[in-house]
Amino acid sequence: MIRSDLSSSIPPAASPMDPEYTYGGEAADGQLKMHATRMASNIWTDSSSIPPHAMDSEYIDSIIARQLASLSVQEREKAYMDVHGVSEEVVETPQMIEEGLENLDRELKQLSQKAAYDKATEMNAAYTANPDFRLAFLRSELFDIQKAAQRLVRHFHLKLDLFGEDRLVSDITQDDLSRNDILALYSGHSQVLNSKDRAGRLIILNVTSSAEPPILSQLRRAFYNAMLASKDPVSQQKGVVIVYYFNDFDGSEMKSEIYWKLPKLIQSIPIRAVASHLCYGNAQWRPAHALMKTSFNLFSRVRLRTHYGTQMACFASLRGHGIDPGILPLTDGFGGTIIKNLESFHETLRTQRQRERKVGPMRSTIFVPSQEDVLFGKGTPIQIHPGNKRFRGLISEYQKRYEKAKKGEKIMLAQEIVETILESSGLFLKPDEDVWNVVDDDVARNKVSNAFRTLRMDQRKFGEIPSSK
Fold first, then answer.
1. How many helices (H) and strands (E) does the chain have?
2. pLDDT at 115 > cutoff 60
3. First and final CA of the chain: distance in angstroms?
4. I need a surface site. Which of 140, 216, 408, 415 has the fewest CB within 10 A?
């Protein structure tokens, strides 16, 4: 089993005062109480300590049935409307927001288990106290102050675990993702769709595949996508819908850890999952579904629906819940479901990466270069990199001006080329073992000057310009 390295100390998913994060809040019977403490003890429980019966679909479904029965008529109706995309929105007022932020600040100061949050505040208090950032957490919990504070604290522990202290007080960008993370992201198996459901809510699509990336990369991908969705103020208010589409079961060992952790991750992001749909056509996925149902908190658990059958049957069921199947980039193919929008999806990701670099702050180290970057080094992979090909085009375009220019003018032309690359969100990168380091303008200008000399020598070698002798 692939294991993610999530070893740092993190707080409970909820305090004993918040039973919603256990099996069922006010536990209906002794069976539920048996595991409530274990389930709430840690948001990142590994697969070896997942509660007993957590993958028993009949047992978990019976729990959910009892939980639904214990809800009031109003609570059941609200959950039903959320799932079907017909719920009413919370009407916010400036006074409501102001008082909510003040109360959230007081609640955060009273919490005890918040080491990662305190560390983040010590590093950059303006980041953790940003009103827009905090407002997203208030909206995710419908302005329940205690739950919003707990979610915010969990968020920083999760972020510390996934990305380390260096990224604790900066928004996660594609430049922070490792090669495995980027491969996972660009696979298209997890997307924030451009289209919305009939209630105007963003849809996050997650599709299983027979060759899943490492669990840590799946979690980083999920974090990145969920945070991307959370930047939209409308989505903060309306919430998002998550569709989990399970491909044909290939008979390999089920990596239960990811199905336990994904729902926990969603409970640490400043956005509310108002409906979750599990779509599958093979009964062997039921243990994974049971595990996910167990891991969800009560709010999400009663807003979860399963759709069993062929792709056509699942799509028809989703339509009844306000999701037009035509917006899902899925089609049946040999060996399973095919993602059919990869070209446009990759372009969307590349545009998003350019936008991230423009708003900064710029990273000093990059794990995976973008197509706009200019790479130092030799060999075919460097030469055929899109950024290097564009760079050589600029050198050819500027050559006549450069050759006629005086020394001071040459420096200015070299800087002009550097700025052209930077303005297109490109970077000049030098390899350093498994990473790429961003070089300063002086080093970049030297590369430009060397490129002009190399072009001149190549032209003389092939007789395109006369020798200076």
1. 20, 11
2. yes
3. 67
4. 408
Task: State the pLDDT at residue 210.
Answer: 64
Query: Coil, helix or strand for 111?
Result: coil
Closest CA to 14 of 4, 23, 1: 23
Contact predicate 140/151, CB 8 Å: yes
- DSSP SS3 for 283: helix
Average pLDDT over residues 302-330: 93
- Which residues lie across from 202 on neighbouring strands? 196
How far is Cα 7 from Cα 10, in angstroms, rounded to an integer? Answer: 9
Query: Do 436 and 179 form a contact (C-beta atoms < 8 A)?
Result: no
Q: How far is CA 370 from the centre of its chain?
A: 18
Q: What DSSP letter does each residue of 223-259 carry, written as one string?
A: HHHHHHHHT-HHHHHH-EEEEEEPPPP-SSPP-HHHH
Q: List residues bridging with 429 in a β-sheet.
A: 375, 438
Sign of CA dihedral 414, 420, 423, 429: negative
Interior angle at CA 156, CA 150 and CA 159, nearest 5:
135
Tell me how far apart the alpha carbons of residues 409 and 123 are, in angstroms, rounded to a whole number.
43
Residues 51 and 38 sit within 8 Å (Cβ to Cβ): yes
User: Residue type for 236, please?
Assistant: Q
Beta bridge partners of 279: 245, 307
The pLDDT mean for the chain works out to 86
Rounded Cα gap, residues 212 and 205, in angstroms:
15
Backbone angles phi, psi at 100, to 5 degrees: -60, -40
Q: Which two tokens stand for residue 391?
A: 């760079």
pLDDT tens digits for range 344-397: 999 999 999 999 999 988 899 999 999 999 999 999 999 999 999 999 999 999
- Other Cβ atoms closer than 10 A to 372: 20
Give the angle subtended at the CA of 184 by the CAs of 178 and 189, to the nearest 5°. 160
Residues pairing with 242 in the sheet: 204, 276
pLDDT tens track for 254-285: 678 888 899 999 999 999 999 999 998 888 88
Burial 166-183 (b: 16+ CB within 10 A, else e): eebbbbbbbbbbbebbbe
The backbone torsions φ and ψ at residue 304, rounded to the nearest 5 degrees and listed phi first, read: -110, 135
Coil, strand, or helix at residue 437?
Answer: strand
pLDDT band at 465 (very low <50, low <70, confident <90, very high): low
Specify the pLDDT at position 5. 32
| Residue type for position 426 | G
pLDDT at 340 > cutoff 60: yes
